Amino acid sequence: MIPITAARRLPPRPAAGMVPAMSRSEPSSSAQHGRTGRPRSAEADRAILEATRAALVELGWGKLTLGDVAARAGVAKTTLYRRWNGKSALVVDAVAALFDERLELPDRGSLRADVEGVIQQFAALLERPETKTALMAVVSEATRDEALRGRIRSAVVDRQKRLVIMGRERAQARGELPPDADGEDGRAAAAHHVDLIYDVIAGAVVHRTLVSGERVDAGWAREFTTLLLAGLTSAP
Amino acid sequence: MIPITAARRLPPRPAAGMVPAMSRSEPSSSAQHGRTGRPRSAEADRAILEATRAALVELGWGKLTLGDVAARAGVAKTTLYRRWNGKSALVVDAVAALFDERLELPDRGSLRADVEGVIQQFAALLERPETKTALMAVVSEATRDEALRGRIRSAVVDRQKRLVIMGRERAQARGELPPDADGEDGRAAAAHHVDLIYDVIAGAVVHRTLVSGERVDAGWAREFTTLLLAGLTSAP
DNA sequence: CTATTTCGCTACGAGTCGTAGCGTAACTTT
DNA sequence: AAAGTTACGCTACGACTCGTAGCGAAATAG
Known about the structure:
mainly alpha; Tetracycline Repressor, domain 2; elongated; 0% strand
């Protein structure tokens, strides 16, 4: 008894906001911070993120409330605010987990097959109602929030870009694409090329799914791949 | 005096919602409905949409409130709810006006120049903070709202697609692209082709600007156009 | 055991939402 | 000119969400 209220005697408070969740796939859980007190419940993290995805599906971004998420997850609302500083940050983490699990690039033997595969894989991810609703909402919020942009970059963009880099290297090894030029310029050009390809592929799939509102079926993936390969394999 | 409250003696009310603004560029204004009472103020429409854009720039989608918009526009909050059924619908109309004014396709003499021009024009539109913030937010909301999807389609998608169709026809007239095949199949294939090109161009520009968060400069537009043309001009 | 941190809970003021009701203004029809 | 109809500005309202504060209890490290 007579417990000394810990929070009270803290310094002015690090900020009004909360833990950055360090952009890892592993949220903000467990000990290992070298900290001394009671560790955050990893189970609570899991439940919260899952509840967030479920609430997104049912309510959509606009009507999703943190109070509702807390109730679904079986935790107190205050716990949410202790870990994330708002709706956007929470949803990014909730959706980022899906990008971890579901994006791979098995070697399908040819550049064409690899490209077509990644298109369909990404399209399948976007078909999920959680991602469909959340991704663009978060992107929209990020236009006014630098920290959120950083989060999206590491949780979504960088992960996808890695697939492009890998596929490109494989194609070069197969001789389907010319190797990168040597030197600093060559590396810069290669990076630019990767960025371009990434925006074209991801952009087209996202746009067709969310803006045009039509499905990415096998036929479309094939046509798009054909168009793309002609551009990729022609002279620089 | 003793005025008979008009609203009271109306039938059960058309709905809880509001005027569809009929998807025209001209909002919901003026008489000419053949209606009989006081017409809606077109000036109010103009002021509201402009106030909406201004509020978007300052506050962003998340913190934009209809009460604030009403105050800026110098109208009563209730007037907003009489014309639009919510934030999303209002913002779509507010942003759609920009797409009207700013999207044209002057004949630049070659397919390459036309494509590069439309890319830069669209990119310039997305640079504006109103569109940057609003477009994806609205798209996100639309994933759960069929009516909103229709609005976006007519206010944004169809207008842009028209540019693709026009550019394509010009290129065919110049002999830069093969003419469409005859018959029903030919027309269907042409429509598919237009859809594909549209999603690739608009998608890449949107994705680079909003997701990757990098500028569409002249160099990028050139590289992208090169990639695209190689794909377009190669055999089907 | 002591120090420290997190947890669930309750409570709260501030702010927004969307609607209702009223009296007035503007326009059409007779 | 009068009557009928619709839009407008204003005020007020209950319902809800937000984000924070404070408390006592639980969980861990040393």
